[in-house]
Amino acid sequence: MKKYILGIESSCDDTSAAVLENYKILANIIAGQEVHKKYGGVVPELASRAHQQNIIPVVDLALKTAGISKHKLHAIAFTRGPGLLGSLLVGTSFAKAFALGLDIPLIEVDHLKAHILAHFIQNETETRKVPEFPFLCLTISGGHTQIAKISGNSKMELIGNTLDDAAGEAFDKAAKILGLPYPGGPVIDKLAQQGNPDKYQFPKPRIEGLNFSFSGLKTSFLYFIRDELKKDPQFIDNNKNDLCASIQKTIVEILMDKITAASELTGIREIALAGGVSANSLVRSELVSFGERLGWNVYIPEFQFTTDNAAMIAIAGYFKYLDGEFASQDLAPYARSRNE
User: What is the domain extent for residue 43?
Assistant: First the structure.
């Protein structure tokens, strides 16, 4: 039987609404916020205001694109957290009111779990191969770097987490040090393709187990650039591509070391990738390379599902709908992951 789920995502600076028919995506609309670029990062108050302006037009467009009436919806799924509280409040409040007005179930979704479940979204033109349980998922974004063991749609165990900064934060901080525009991660990726990744060596943290740490690398990169600029004021301009390639290589090596250790520890060779930083070209190519060498089945998300989007919220909501896991009207959003 066809079930139509409306997903709403508003955890940071993208307002998104999506409609799924069971596993199949019918619409996935995303409205970005250009206002943050001049500040070099997301300004929470401006983000929440923009969400208020965008959410109704975005939901309306999603329904029109999907070609269905709001009265055909079976449930409303929304991001409860983690994220910016002001932004989450907008999405939460809208989802509550819309579900109440339509008299249909309300479903809360954890943003990080949704990134993982995005692998199960199907499009209308082809059937995508999906991970088999159990599988490992490396989730990398601006705010989180985690390894989870997924044994079922609702059975997820966090086995590795960042102790301080996330990989995406390390990319953005390095970009800011180099004077690159925001968001810096994609710019580093682009410039790195023209550079020598072995030109400069940066220290990798020695963290036992499967946890991550990127604060030391950020500090080391900052001091290295500061010292080199004292000797040559044009150092960044003369070596920008090589610097980007070198710092990118270091970050990706840290990620690959940990997911390899996780596979060896668990014996699991089904390996998936998720989160905004999974769009990085070196992360994707290295994971494929490691998979070929170590006999992994590797699952890399489509680019449209790497950044924050409502389709992943809708698919997570669909699984909860099948299990009858509905939310009450009195819940509140949460800023930090419950695993932190």
Answer: 4-127+305-323
